[in-house]
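Open question from group meeting: does this chain pack into something compact, or does most of it stay loose? Before anyone orders reagents, we agreed to write out a predicted structure and look at it together. Recording both the input and the output here so the notebook holds the full record.
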Amino acid sequence: MGKLSVVREAVAVAVSANLPVILWGSPGTGKTSSVLALGESLGLPVEVVVGSIREPSDFAGLPVLRDGHTWFAPPRWAERLAATGSGLLFLDELTTAPPAVQAAMLRVVLERTVGDLVLPADVRIVAAANPPGEAADGWDLSAPLANRLIHLHWEVDATAIAEGFTHGFSVPELAHKEPPGADEIARSRALIGAFLRIRPELLLVVPASPDQAGRSWPSPRTWELAAVALAACAAAGVDDAVQAQLVVGAVGEAAGFELLTWIRNLDLPDPATLLADPSVPLPSRMDQLHALLGAVVAYVRADGTAQTWQQAWTVVARVAGTAPDVAASAAKGLARCRPAGTSLPTTMLDLVPILRAAGLLR
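C-alpha cells returned:
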C-alpha cells in the first residue's frame, strides 16, 4: 500500500469515528478534492471554510440584539450544518489564518460551537494546512489548536495520482465502516492507561519550540484521541500502517511508536477466554496485568450480565495474590459497573483487605 493510500485510509477511519484530523501537505496536492470526494461518498454536505479569508467573528459569532439580549449570531455555513443535522466541516489553509482567527477556531474544534450555535454531534471536522514555510504569510499552528487534532502528512504518490487520472480517484471503503462502540473505546482506554502507568512521563510533553508545538504531542487530550483511534482501527480491521498514522498523528512519533511497540509485545489472553476458564495462565509483568484487568473490566461493562461480573471477581482474586495494587484498581472499576440486583460472589470474602484499600469498604 502506497503512502498516499495509507493516509487516505487513515482519514476515512478518522471521519468514520468522528475524530478531528488535519492534513499537512504542499499546495496543489489534492487535499481539498480528496475531502470533497469523501464527503460526497458518505452523503455528507461539505462546508469549506478558508481560514486565510476569515475573521474571528466568523467563528465566535457577531453580537446582535435579540429579544433584549445579546446573541452571537453564527455565520451561514454553521447554520446550514446545524439545519442538516450532519455534515463535514473542512477548515482549509489553517496556517495562513492569523493567531486571532486560530484562537476563535478553538471552540469550534473542541466544543463544536460557533457563536451561540451548537453544531450537531454528527458533524465531522477535517482541516488542511500547508507547512508555514510553503504558505503565503504562513503562521505556525497555535499549540492549543494543534493539540485538538490528529496530524496526518499528505504525501504525493506518483503512482496513485497517475491511477487517479486514468481511472478516477476512489474513496476508501473504510469510510463506510461503523464507528467503534463504547466497549471498544473502553478497552483502548484501558490499554493506554496501563501503558501510562509504566511511562507516566509521556502523559504530557509540551514542546519548547513553536513549530513543534504546532504539530502532534502527548497530552491527556491527545491520548484520548489515540484511544478512540485505536478502537476505530480495530473496528475497521485496518493494517498496522494506518493504525500507526493515526496514533502517531495524535501523540507524536516518540510516544506513539513506543505505545504501538508495547501493545504489539503484550501477548495477553482474551478476556472472554480468561473469564470462562480460570486455569488460563496470567502474565507476570505488572504492565501486562494492568492491561489485562483493564480489558476484563471493559469487557464486563460491555457485557452487562451478572454472571460475567461475578466471574471477573475470580480473576481479580487471582491477581490479588501477587499484585494487590493492580487488583485494587480493577476492583474499583468492577464496583462501578455492578448489574442491578446482582449478589456478591463468595470470592469477594477473600478480597476484603483489597477492597478496603481501594476505598470500597470501611
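Observations to bring back to the group:
Residues 286-303 form the longest helix (18 residues).
The chain is about 50% helix and 10% strand.
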